[in-house]
Design brief:
Layout (H helix, E strand, L loop, with lengths): L1 E7 L2 E6 L11 E9 L2 H7 L16 E8 L11 E4 L9 H4 L25 E4 L2 H4 E3 L6 H4 L5 H11 L8 E5 L3 H11 L5 E6 L2 H9 L4 E4 L4 H8 L5 E6 L4 H9 L1 E9 L11 H4 L5 E3 L8 H9 L9 E6 L3 H9 L1 H4 L3 E5 L1
Parallel strand pairs: 8-9, 8-11, 9-10, 11-12, 12-13, 14-15
Antiparallel strand pairs: 1-2, 3-4, 3-6, 3-15, 4-5, 5-7
Length: 345
């Protein structure tokens, strides 16, 4: 088969690899029909995720067809159309039993494209298949369903739920890339009074308004001042960091009102400052998190009911063998105006 293989910082190539096979009784092998590229994949290429070893096949999102299963797989059979989740918990450890699949201590969690070969390939092996796969109806378009591998569960769980968004809240979303846009859609489900989005790109700010932002502001135009103006100087109830840089994290902390919540979603590759001398008496809450994907079944149901704007996030389409071109397009998002790029057979 062919797969996108990580070679080292700044280098990946579409090349021949042996076909994956069942290695454990809980494995499934899936033929990849549709996959996509995540901002985390770019962080890996940038060297921000050093535990990814050269030689690893990248990718952790896909829709495909099961072609083989181990003897212990109970819920899936060859021929099933499935969503490959970015998280595949073991289902048995204390973390998994508590619904914290991303923190699995039994050999699962985020493994695809991280510690084992991933989904940017013609076939992939999915460990812990009963917990890492979800059935997808034939009628559901694959390019929409694939966004429930990672981006929408992350936005819903790590953004909206961790931020405890409530009716009437003012929410600032910092970053209008794919994950930030999904956060906008996710927080809208909780009836905030207003959702404000900041980014440095006008195309992404237009996309933010299309998926439900009430106000947008360019990053260099003092987002904190806009938040203050719209809240009588109190600040945001919730700030969601969806970029992964020190400056964006520090902005989120600075705009919170007393009792506010900062939900960090972005993948960070360097330290950020925390102004504790200003925050210690303001009763703020800061959360971080790797998605657990406990919400995926609910989100699949919402997708089937047309309650998630998944299609609006897809801007570019490629064939699987155009993987390197797709990475170049996604990596130059400012020039290409790319949001989510989808690759299909």
């Amino acid at each position: 088969m062919h797969a996108l293989v990580f070679k080292g910082t700044g280098d990946a190539a579409w090349e021949d690899r042996p076909d994956p096979r069942v290695e454990s009784s809980t494995d499934a092998v899936v033929r990849i029909d549709t996959t996509t590229i995540c901002g985390t994949d770019l962080h890996i290429l940038a060297g921000d995720v050093p535990e990814v070893a050269p030689g690893t096949v990248l990718g952790h999102e896909a829709v495909g067809e099961v072609v083989d299963t181990g003897s212990a797989v109970a819920d899936f059979r060859p021929g099933d159309r499935v969503l490959v989740s970015c998280i595949s918990g073991c289902g048995r450890c204390s973390s998994c039993r508590g619904g914290r699949y991303g923190q699995c201590t039994g050999g699962g969690g985020w493994v695809l494209g991280h510690t084992v070969d991933g989904t940017q390939a013609e076939f992939t092996r999915v460990p812990n298949a009963d917990f890492g796969l979800h059935h997808v109806p034939e009628a559901e378009p694959a390019e929409k369903a694939v966004l429930l591998s990672d981006v929408f569960p992350t936005a819903f769980e790590v953004g909206a739920l961790n931020g405890r968004v409530a009716p009437g809240d003012t929410v600032l979303v910092v970053g209008a890339g794919p994950i930030g846009l999904a956060v906008v859609a996710a927080v809208r489900l909780f009836s905030p009074a207003r959702v404000i989005v900041t980014d440095r790109d006008d195309t992404r700010l237009r996309a933010a308004r299309a998926v439900g932002a009430d106000a947008t502001v360019r990053a260099e135009e003092d987002p904190g001042r806009l938040v203050a103006d719209l809240t009588d100087g109190l600040g945001a109830d919730v700030a969601v960091e969806a970029v992964g840089t020190p400056a964006t994290f520090e902005l989120c902390a600075a705009v919170l009102r007393p009792g506010g919540r900062l939900a960090n979603v972005g993948v960070h590759g360097s330290p950020a400052s925390l102004a504790l001398h200003e925050l210690w008496n303001r009763n703020v809450t800061i959360t971080t998190g790797l998605v657990d994907t406990f919400s995926t079944p609910r989100l699949l149901s919402m997708l089937a009911s047309d309650r998630l704007p998944a299609g609006e996030l897809v801007t570019h389409r490629f064939a699987l063998e155009q993987m390197e071109e797709a990475y170049a397009t996604f990596g130059d998002a400012l020039g290409s105006e790319a949001l989510k790029v989808v690759l299909a057979r």
